[in-house]
Amino acid sequence: MARKFVKPVLIVLAISISFIAGALTASKRGWGSPLVTVAVHNNTSAPLRAVNLRYGSCASEGTAFRSGKPLAVGESRKFQFLVCGEGEYTVEAVLENGRQLFSSTYVESGYTSNEYIEPNRIRSESSFYGW
To answer: For residues 58 and 85, is the Cβ–Cβ distance under 8 A?
Structure first.
C-alpha cells in the first residue's frame, strides 16, 4: 500500500523544488519587477552642474531626480522609478560650461540602464531583467 504513494509524492516534491528554484531565480534577476534602475555616470573631465531624470509610463509622467547639486568627475548616481509595463525616460545633463546634453531611452519593467555622460554626448547601455 505504501508503494502506491511513492510516485505521487516524488512528483509533488519535484514540482515543488522546480517552483522554488524558479521563484528564487525570478527574484534575483528582477523578473516581474515594475522598477527600472538607471545609473548616471560622469565620464567628463569636469563636474556636471546638474543631472535631471524624467520618465513617462502609462499616460503619467514624473521626475525621478532633479539636482542642482554637481556630480563630480567619476561619480555615479543611481535612480529607480516605477513603470507599468513599458515607458521611457530622458536624462538631461548640464555641463560645467552650461551646455546641455539629452538622451531618451525606451524601457520596460525590470530594465537596468547605465547612462554615461561624456563631453559631447550621453551614451546609453540598457539590459533587461538583470542579464
So the answer is: yes
Positive or negative torsion for Cα 27, 30, 34, 35: positive
SS3 at position 66: strand
Q: Is pLDDT at 27 greater than 80 in this prediction?
A: no
Of 86, 103, 110, 125, whose CA–CA distance to 36 is shortest? 110
Q: How far apart are CA 37 and CA 77, in angstroms?
A: 11
- What is the C-alpha separation between 93 and 71, in angstroms, rounded? 10
* 82: CB partners within 8 A, 6+ apart: 34, 35, 36, 57
Against a cut of 0.90, is the pTM above it? no
CA distance 78 to 48: 15
DSSP 121: -
Q: How far is CA 3 from the centre of its chain?
A: 51
Determine the pLDDT at residue 128: 64
Is residue 69 within 8 A of residue 51, CB to CB? The reply is no
- Cα–Cα dist 40/74, whole Å: 10
